[in-house]
Amino acid sequence: MDAVTKYRNKYEDEGFIRSKNRSLTRALIGDALARKAHTAFVWVKGHKGHPGNEAADKLAAAGASRVSSDDVSLAFPPTYQLTGAKLSTITQSLAYRVAREKKTKQVHPRLSTVRRMEQIIADLTDDFGVHVTPARVWRSLRDDGVTKEARQWLWMGIHDGYMIGSKWLRPNMSEELQQRAICLPCQQTETMEHILFTCTACGRELIWSLLRELWQAAGGPLCTPSWGSIFGAPCVELRTGEGVRSHVLERRWTVLAVESARLIWKLRCERVIARDGRSFEDREVSNRWYAELERRLALERRVVALLTGKRKARRAARVDAIWRPLVKSSSDLPLSWVNDSGVLVGIKRGR
User: Is-contact 139 242, C-beta < 8 A?
Assistant: First the structure.
């Protein structure tokens, strides 16, 4: 409601460019101005038994649980429609944002992107009972459980942006280049789905086996690698044995699943480009996987070390909850192991 009251004049002067829900905000303001009577908004403290607030909570919960939303008319009298922004308030940043939004509306989605997004959403619904929108999946890539490098890989994977498979079969490609379309161990055209889920080259199956072993040893419920559980990992909802949703389990799965899938991709690229098709040994793959997780844990600990005050304490507690079940001799770790660089830790090894 701050957008309708506290920031109303600012948003109107800027043409509602910064407003996240501009259509709803403009409709609320327009309807309020169209009323002949005075309109007042009164703040009440939530969860204190206020009849109006309790009724609003019930309606919000009912709406959030629905698969599809109602069609709500946001039309209001044209007399109260303000268009554009005042020259006195426009900045280069605001103008750039408007230009980007207009350009985005003119871009048609790629068919391959649409199909992959549909697969991600379907997997999340079937495997975890989670109903999400494409916008929610895109936003989830910025989850702080996903590193910058992994975020770029996920984004490219959803967009089918990597030069693999049928992309090498274009007419302008030479015969030598067209041979890169084939996965040599499997003798079939490569796709991201093949690389991550069906390829018989050494590494893929072992990495998923190591992930499953460590995940279950840490008390995680059954999770199967899929488009939804990997590329939509931050959207996954997991629950404890008591049926309570656990954000710790969700964050742990996001880290393990994304880092494992990305390692499979990196090993594939090294095998094809740097090793001329030579496969990795099991021991190499296993060591690389544990090294990736230990690198990620070290990164988390360095981030905590840079924080101060309450933010440091909260972040340290979260890192401890996520990673303690995954490290060796966790029962012997001191309480300050996360931000104490003198404490050496390593990931549990099951084999």
Answer: no
Cα–Cα distance for residue pair 214/258, rounded to 1 Å: 14
Query: According to the 3-state scheme, what is the secondary structure of the chain?
Result: CCCCCCCHHHHHHCCCCCCCCHHHHHHHHHHHHHCCCCCCCCCCCCCCCCHHHHHHHHHHHHHHCCCCCCCCCCCCCHHHCCCCCCCCCCCHHHHHHHHHHHHHHHCCCCHHHHHHHHHHHHHHHHHHCCCCCHHHHHHHCCCCCCCHHHHHHHHHHHCCCCCCHHHHHCCCCCHHHHHHHEECCCCEECCHHHHHHHCCCCCHHHHHHHHHHHHHHCCCCCCCCCHHHHHCHHHCCCECCCCCECHHHHHHHHHHHHHHHHHHHHHHHHHHHHCCCCCCCHHHHHHHHHHHHHHHHHHHHHHHHHCCHHHHHHHHHHHHHHHHHHECCHHHCCCCCCCCCCCCCCECCCC
Distance CA 310, CA 321 (A): 17
Written as tens digits, the pLDDT of the chain (351 aa) is 888 888 888 888 888 888 888 888 888 888 888 888 888 888 888 888 888 888 988 888 888 777 777 787 888 778 877 778 888 888 999 899 889 888 888 888 889 999 999 999 999 999 999 999 999 999 999 998 899 999 999 999 999 999 999 999 999 999 988 988 999 999 999 999 999 999 998 899 999 999 999 999 998 898 999 999 999 999 999 998 888 899 999 999 999 999 999 999 999 999 998 888 888 999 999 999 999 999 999 999 999 999 999 999 999 999 999 999 999 888 888 888 998 888 888 898 865
Beta-carbon contacts of residue 236 (< 8 Å; ≥ 6 apart): 124, 128, 130, 223, 228, 229, 250, 253, 254
How many other CB atoms sit within 10 Å of the CB of residue 106? Answer: 6
Record the pTM: 0.79
CA distance 317 to 52: 37
- Tokens of residue 16, six digits: 């509602």
